[in-house]
Amino acid sequence: YDKIEEIIYSDIYSSLFDLNQKKINTLILHQASYLTKWRGKVIACLLNLKKKKIIDKIGVSIQTPNELKKALSCKHIEHIQLPFNILDWRWENFEKRILQRKKRGEFTVHARSPLLQGLILSKDSSKWDRANLKNSKKVINWINRSVIVFRKKSVIDLSLAFVNSIHWIDGIIIGVVNAKQLIENINIARSSKLTKENLEEIKNTRPILTNLTLNPALWKDK
Q1: Which of 85, 58, 51 lies closest to 216 in space, CA to CA?
Q2: Sheet order of strands, 108-112 included
Q3: What is the pLDDT of residues 140-197, one digit of tens each?
Q4: C-alpha closest to that of 12 among 62, 50, 60, 39
Q5: What is residue 194's DSSP assignment?
């Protein structure tokens, strides 16, 4: 506890030096537990750096609904990054609170892992089994059928269109392995969004997966 302040300042100034930058636009805490851990010392340090204009915004990466609840309750958080995909129903009850938070001031939400770490693209039942889902055929069939029903070019197209159509999400984070894939994903993300009716149909027909599948941290080891 006594050294936490020293560690925070050291890490941030080292990053600024390595990046050859004078300030950080948005500093994202890697774990939601840091919001309250060490008696709130982390947030206090970041607010001090914000006052000195070393940091513009304070954000947090969350993994679970409980962590989102904690982040929304912290008035100092201006940015949230959360896992979100076409099969993930866990965030629906938070829509109203997120929109209320946006009305109170600048607040952005970025969605990561729109393909559920690539699982949504897989037809390999063993990979779904590792993600704690036995009856993967039902899910795979629903995904493939939805591509046709909503007139999308591919599963990636459908997946990104879904996330991109959620009005409270401001950006999508997706990994790429080369420049070609980056351009392809940008073009796909720019494709037409789904309508409100499309979104409702997806929410009403998609298979209901448990948290054991939706949270990769709970998947079985290879």
Answers
A1: 85
A2: 24-29, 55-61, 79-83, 108-112, 171-173
A3: 999 999 999 999 999 999 999 999 999 999 999 988 889 988 888 888 877 778 999 9
A4: 50
A5: P
- The percent of the chain in helix, strand and coil, each rounded to the nearest 5, is 55, 10, 35
215 token code pair: 């949270």
Three-state DSSP class for residue 123: coil
116: left (phi over 0), alpha (psi -120 to 50) or beta: left
Nearest CA among 37, 112, 113, 34 for reference residue 77:
34
The angle at the Cα of 62, spanning 31 to 107, to the nearest 5 degrees, equals 110
User: Which DSSP helix (H) or strand (E) runs through 82?
Assistant: strand 79-83
pTM of the model: 0.89
Give the model confidence (pLDDT) of 36-45 as tens digits.
888 888 999 9
